[in-house]
Amino acid sequence: MTNKLVFFGGGNMAEAIFSKLKNNPAFKIEIIQNNNERAQELSHNYPEFQIWQTLDSTLDKNDILIIAVKPQHAKEAINAIKEKIKDCIIISVMAGIPSQTIINWTGNERVIRTMPNTPASLGLGATAIYCPELVTDQEKAIIYSIFEAIGIIYPAKDESFVDKVLPVTSSTVAFIYYFIEGFINHAVEKYGFTATDARNLVNQTVMGSSAMITSNPNIAIEELRARVTSKKGTTEQGILTFETNGLHDIIAQAMDNCYNRALEMAKEFN
């Protein structure tokens, strides 16, 4: 069975998903993109998809709509099509907008909330997915398959985890970039490395460290760190500096502030 999969919005996150599904015969993909220049770009890059600037047809109960517009534009955009999406499955990839808000806007209770992250564009994403009880097991399997195309999935036991995952996977991408920036900048400014060399060296080290974690799933992260940290050695001095300055506390505060902002956004959209 082929499922009609309509993307409402053709931005970066939507493209990360539909680009990985273009050869999947299980889906007939259509994209709604109201920006003419972007619509033309998508038509050129994805001739196998139907690209529309408006949603003209009513979606039925077997169709899937992925809402991938900017949260601040969501209410107005959804209001323009709400009469045509009352029966379909709705998947939101928008941060900060609760399912109930989307239900209130659309009159459709079949709302699934997801939170992917930007490495999805490389097929290395991590996506939290919350499906309400009225979603059948068959529908859930189809939904999971969409996001498994862009990385791993985390089936959330309740909707709150879609917000809680923001400081764990989504915003954390930027946090990691920020941490890497610090190493690169100091390597250039203090030790005389070129920016290119510093970036390449730090990037390779981060990739190697991540690969070590992946290759050793039964070894605790603390143990992997301990194996690199010799007593009275150079690494230990760096770790002690982090501990003295409360790096883990700073990380926890950043995560909490990120999560709290998600809760604030939910209230704003309500």
Automatic annotation (TrEMBL):
Keywords: Amino-acid biosynthesis, Cytoplasm, NADP, Oxidoreductase, Proline biosynthesis. It is found in: Cytoplasm. SUPFAM superfamilies: 6-phosphogluconate dehydrogenase C-terminal domain-like (SSF48179), NAD(P)-binding Rossmann-fold domains (SSF51735). One of its GO terms (biological process) is L-proline biosynthetic process. NADP(+) binds at residues 68-71. It catalyses: L-proline + NAD(+) = (S)-1-pyrroline-5-carboxylate + NADH + 2 H(+); L-proline + NADP(+) = (S)-1-pyrroline-5-carboxylate + NADPH + 2 H(+). Residues 4-96 form the Pyrroline-5-carboxylate reductase catalytic N-terminal domain. One of its GO terms (molecular function) is pyrroline-5-carboxylate reductase activity. InterPro entries: 6-PGluconate_DH-like_C_sf, NAD(P)-bd_dom_sf, P5C_Rdtase_cat_N, P5CR-like_CS, P5CR_dimer, Pyrroline-COOH_reductase. GO terms for cellular component: cytoplasm. Residues 159-265 form the Pyrroline-5-carboxylate reductase dimerisation domain. Pathway: Amino-acid biosynthesis; L-proline biosynthesis; L-proline from L-glutamate 5-semialdehyde: step 1/1. Its EC number is 1.5.1.2. It comes from the Bacteria. HAMAP family: P5C_reductase. Catalyzes the reduction of 1-pyrroline-5-carboxylate (PCA) to L-proline. Belongs to the pyrroline-5-carboxylate reductase family. This is Pyrroline-5-carboxylate reductase. The gene is proC.
